[in-house]
Amino acid sequence: MKSLHPKNQFIATVLAFAVIPMSGLATDTYLPSMPSMAKDLRLPESSIQLTLSIFLISYGLSQFFAGSVVDAFGRYKVSIISLALFVVSFIITATTKDIMLIYAMRVLQGTLSGFAVVSKRAFFVDVYEGEKRKHYLSIMTIVWSVGPIIAPFIGGYLQKMFGWQSNFYLLAAYSFIVLILELIFSGETLKVKSKFQFSFLINEYTLMFKTKDFFYGMIMCGISYAVVIFFNLCGAFIIEHKMGYSEVTAGYVSLILGFAWMTGGFLGKALIRKAFLPKIRYANFLQVILIILMFLGSYVVSNIYSLVIFAFAIHVTAGFIFNNYFSYCIGRFPNSAGIAGGLTGGVAFMITSAISYSIVALIKPEIQLEVAEGYFILGILGLLVLSIVKFRKAHI
């Protein structure tokens, strides 16, 4: 396996940034197409919504052991295999009308996303040191959040012009281009390979699960991101089917809410020096208040503008809580940051998928009021977890 040539380091870095948002592109590009997929495949909304949930579960599960795999087999090899399989799986998804085959491909795509993203996170640690490493890791976080912002915006236009299959053809083409460029310019960056030790992983995970503040942090990450995925599961159906707007409009709404999530993340970084738990509790209280206002306001005004305004404010608080808790969990075990990051991401995305899909299946949101009800459940779950954390802290 060829090593990364120093003269190609910059291009390889750009390619790493191109792979980082893959999970967001694979989940959000086809959001405006979900109603059309349901109609074309003659399936209920819940069947199409499940394609997003099983992707997130697979993405979460793969992160449990992806770090150890890339340490044992190399970053470059894992990245190349993932990109090649992405191309095949996206083409299959676009060319079939068998929902079970689509489910299988979404499981594969979620798993591949976990491996690809983890391999590229490790790339920056391998190649850069000191301030440069901090600089690129900071940019990586921003790039990761860009995917969910631009993806549905592009997907809305593709859906209107070419149909839902075009979203997956685009993802296949994107993966293929990055794959070819990786083969030409990139290379292995891992200096020393380690053995894949399952027993070591189990011991580390056991320790982390027993660490209560870390455990509750993972849960809060899952609940916070569930706010976003809950809207993603039902938003396009409400905007297109119930309100009568186009797929492009649904894409614009996702774009706006993506900026809300990013805004929350930037606020989290700006207030990083503030006391941790108090600022999290304030954000959660504000979130619950906003949800109650949305609930009450739904009896006065209920249109696309009020829906987006309330959702935007609520998603800012969710982004703030997620950014703070995710950073906290990764830094909780500095000597095992990779494993801690993998476990946090794995548990968080599994919780996100389970909670968001369950709430949508229970409420079946069709109007703004019912969206507020779903948000309220998530807000109260967050409040409950933070209350437990406060109670335990007071009795230690």
TrEMBL record:
Signal sequence segment: none
Domain Major facilitator superfamily (MFS) profile residues, every copy: 12-396
Topology term for the membrane: Multi-pass membrane protein
Entry keyword Transmembrane helix: yes
Domain of life the protein comes from: Bacteria
InterPro entries in the record: MFS (IPR011701), MFS_dom (IPR020846), MFS_trans_sf (IPR036259)
Claim: Transmembrane helix is one of the keywords in the record: yes
Location in the cell: Membrane
Entry's transmembrane regions: 50-69, 76-94, 136-155, 167-185, 214-239, 251-272, 284-301, 307-326, 338-363, 375-391
SUPFAM superfamilies from the UniProt entry: MFS general substrate transporter (SSF103473)
Major place of residence: membrane
Keywords from the named record: Membrane, Transmembrane, Transmembrane helix, Transport
Protein name, UniProt field: MFS transporter
